[in-house]
Amino acid sequence: MPNASTLNNRTLSGFASLVTQGTITLRASAPTNCLPGSLQEVVADVASKFGPVSVESTHRSTSRNWRAGGARHSLHLSCRAIDFRVRTRTRGVMAYLSSRPEVGGIKMYRNGLIHIDNGTRRSW
């Protein structure tokens, strides 16, 4: 599992600190060093307000994106999207994410996975 010292220098200290504390957990297959700091900040704020967060997916190769059922031009391909779960309190999370100007695409899947990206504002 990556720790705060392996995260890129642009990372906001809140995100790195919450990873170190275990409030944000990262899948080994979900690199964070390529993510925009603004999205890292949003995830850190969600973890602070709503409880522990598990980051499930960030950057994907074309083949992995296809296997995951991702869109052909998914922002995961350019590391501009995050899929995560809030492990405890989920009430209010979507409204909170919708209020954040840094968030473009937003979706909560039936399995509880939340997708955010920094593209244009949309939901599906």
UniProtKB/TrEMBL annotation:
Every Peptidase M15A C-terminal domain range: 32-117
InterPro entries: Peptidase_M15A_C, Zn_M74/Hedgehog-like
Pfam family, one: Peptidase_M15_3
Protein name stated in the entry: Peptidase M15A C-terminal domain-containing protein
Source organism: Microvirga vignae
